[in-house]
Design brief:
- The protein is 14% helix and 31% strand.
- By secondary structure, it is an alpha/beta fold.
- The strands form nine sheets. A twelve-stranded parallel beta sheet has the order 16-13-10-7-4-1-31-28-25-22-19-17, covered by helices on one side. A ten-stranded parallel beta sheet has the order 14-11-8-5-2-32-29-26-23-20, with no helix packed on it. Strands 15-12-9-6-3-33 form a six-stranded parallel beta sheet, with no helix packed on it.
- The longest helix has 26 residues.
- 46% of the residues are buried.
- About 21% of the residues have low confidence.
Length: 673
């Protein structure tokens, strides 16, 4: 059996199912076993079941019909969805808005000074846990985890490498229920859709730790086990489930649409919940862990009761019966039962049949003072909690800006830059490109579901000054991080989402000074687009060839020929164009070719791509335009399209005049008999 490494101590983060440095967004429906904490806003989807308490530095917005078995602490406003059930209290640094049919078992405290102590302590513990994990010696493993079985130990990808899971990974505890598995990556970890982690021979999810230095990406319907301690963001696809905690030290945690039957996220029983109506109904400045102050349960955890049986310990043998006290009969000695654990110390008095004198346990009532231990939660009243209100301003930025453009989330960075997130795309805007108080927006074209299903994603970006003027070019390049391209997909950009131009691939992970755009392929196949201009970017299919035929290759001035193109697989119409000067020829979009003056007329056809394809162009064809006769009436260049009609009209007039003269001559000089 492999020797198991010591576990990673999560400390104050132990009661959390989800922790994020910025924001948390959950899908609908989902189940969370544990608390949820965010340095920004928390937004939950509809039909969420959360068996814990929510702590947000900014606002909290819950979905319709959510059931939350704890309290809500928000540095800004709290808004609950219709039909929600909150089995705790609400504490908000700003207004509280309850949806129709929402019930709150505890108190409602708007405008409260909410402490961020619980969340801060949890994030500090997360940082310490990551440091601990990264400091441990590890066995190097292959990049792909599918089909692999690991026993207890510490594992890591090669230096600078990454880990992927595109199948099933088995963790074998070999019969040891305390076996610990620590799996590290110097960069990121990516689990493909429908991938699995199987716990075998006594392995437990609480003893599994995933520690990527970068992000952790989980595909749709994947089922993982273990605690995710990511340095960067964590993104989860629809229907994914994690039997364990999901933590991000520096980024966000975003969940796709959930599955209420999947088991959800977190560890059952770790969350801070409130049972029944809280005994505390005042609007105190609070928090910390107040939600658990209700029935002296916290007192139970208080260690002060152990001072009581000190005296009882004199009769200590009494504790002998105390083993029964474990079941609370020593509780007969009163509230000491609450100190049941003390009874455990009583077991030292193994002699104690005299425990029958347990009435002395009556002194145990002092153990009742354990309830004062419950007051220990007042430590949470740290006035520093006022900082939460500042966080509220951060929440305002990330929820107001995107409304101008799309449901993307815009996050200002501390150095003056901006990060825009709309799964599965992330845009990084450096400070040098964000001068002038710009308002940013990003949208993903979701109009063609078939294209999206095949991986043909289209991303459009915009930036606007406060004056309403749009900015389209920048001195410093932006980064657009996109998923792997689909098979045969080509990366291109478009200014109108119709005509697409291919983007060049970069050899290095940087854009040359003279280039406007380019893309770099990461080791995992993901794409980073570097661009100095704003437009639409996306993956496209090459079209089938476009062929063109011409009715007449030689035409005289004033006459017409016709082009006919076939082929192509794009979704747009075929259009005809010329590369020649209009004085020589003109071509309509329907393919009519008008000869204006002698020369060569070069014609070609194009077809736009639409949602899937690149543009297609036919080969060019040259048509010879010649002067058949000298024009009877001088014509200006460029009006050759009317030349034939004008000349015919002039000729008709001349013929009519001749006929008229002949007729008049006959009438004036009649023919002699």
């Amino acid at each position: 059996m492999a020797a198991s490494p010591p576990t990673i101590n999560l400390g104050s983060a132990n009661s959390f199912a989800v922790l994020a440095h910025t924001y948390v967004i959950t899908g609908a429906p989902s189940v969370f076993n544990g608390n949820i904490g965010a340095g920004g806003a928390i937004t939950t989807g509809a039909d969420n079941v959360i068996k814990g308490t929510l702590y947000a530095t900014a606002a909290i917005t819950t979905g319709a019909d959510d059931v939350i078995d704890g309290s809500l602490y928000a540095g800004a406003a709290i808004t609950t969805g219709a039909g929600s059930a909150i089995n705790g209290s609400l504490y908000a640094g700003a207004a509280i808005t309850k949806g129709v049919g929402t019930t709150v078992s505890g108190s409602t405290n708007a405008g409260a000074s909410v402490s961020g102590a619980v969340y801060s302590a949890a994030m500090a513990a997360l940082g310490a846990a990551i440091t601990d994990a990264n400091g441990r010696a590890a066995t190097t493993i292959d990049t792909e985890l599918a089909g692999v079985t690991l026993v207890a130990g510490v594992y890591s990808a090669v230096p600078g490498g990454f880990l992927t899971l595109a199948g099933t990974l088995t963790l074998n505890a070999e019969g040891d229920p305390n076996a610990v598995f620590i799996i590290k990556s110097p960069t990121y970890i990516s689990a493909a859709a429908s991938s699995r982690v199987v716990l075998a021979n006594g392995a437990k999810a609480v003893n599994v730790f995933w520690v990527p230095t970068g992000y952790f990406s989980i595909g749709a319907s994947a089922a993982l086990a273990g605690n995710i301690l990511a340095t960067s963001y964590v993104s989860l696809g629809a229907g994914a489930a994690v039997q364990g905690r999901v933590f991000s030290k520096t980024g966000y945690v975003g969940f796709g649409a959930g599955d209420s039957n999947s088991g959800g996220f977190g560890i059952p029983g770790i969350g801070t919940t409130t049972t029944g109506t809280p005994t505390t109904t005042t609007t105190t400045t609070t928090p910390g862990t107040t939600p658990t102050t209700t029935p002296g349960g916290t007192g139970g955890t208080g260690t002060t009761p152990t001072t009581t049986p000190g005296g009882t310990g004199g009769t200590g043998s009494t504790g002998g019966t105390g083993s029964t006290g474990g079941t609370g009969s020593t509780g007969g000695t009163g509230s000491t039962g609450g100190t049941g654990s003390t009874g455990g110390t009583g077991s030292t008095g193994g002699t104690g049949s005299t425990g029958g004198t347990g009435s002395t346990g009556g002194t145990g009532s002092t153990g009742g003072t354990g309830s004062t231990g419950g007051t220990g939660s007042t430590g949470g009243t740290g006035s520093t909690g006022a900082r939460g209100a500042t966080g509220a301003t951060g929440g305002t930025v990330s929820t107001t800006i995107p409304r101008l453009f799309s449901p993307s989330i815009v996050i200002p960075t501390s150095d003056g830059g901006v990060v825009i997130q709309n799964a599965p795309v992330e845009v990084i805007i450096p400070p040098a490109a964000n001068s002038g108080n710009l308002v940013w927006g990003m949208s993903i074209d979701r109009s063609n579901q078939a294209a999206i299903d095949e991986g043909y994603i289209t991303v459009c970006l915009s930036a606007m000054r406060s004056s309403g003027e749009y900015v389209t070019s920048f001195a410093a390049p932006l980064q657009i991080r996109m998923p792997k391209p689909p098979l045969n997909g080509v990366l291109a950009f478009s200014r109108n989402n119709i005509t697409w131009t291919v983007i060049s691939r970069l050899v290095e992970r940087a854009l040359p000074d003279e280039a406007q755009d380019g893309y770099f392929v990461e080791a995992d196949g993901r794409i980073i687009v570097f661009t100095r201009h704003l437009t639409c970017f996306g993956f496209r299919k090459p079209q089938a060839p476009l062929d063109m035929s011409i009715a007449k290759f030689d035409i005289v001035t004033g006459s017409v020929s016709r082009a006919l193109a076939t082929g192509g697989t794009g979704e747009d119409l075929i259009r005809y164009q010329t590369m020649s000067d209009p004085s020589v020829c003109e071509v309509t979009e329907t393919g009519l070719i008008f000869g204006n003056s002698a020369g060569t007329c070069t014609v070609y056809a194009t077809k736009g791509g639409g949602s899937f394809y690149l543009d297609a162009s036919s080969p060019t064809i040259d048509i010879k335009v010649v002067d058949a006769i000298v024009p009877l009436v001088p014509l200006a260049p460029g009006v050759g399209r009317l030349a034939l009609a004008v000349q015919l009209a002039v000729l008709a007039v001349l013929v009519a005049m001749c006929v008229l003269l002949v007729t008049l001559g006959r009438r004036r000089f009649p023919k002699e008999e």
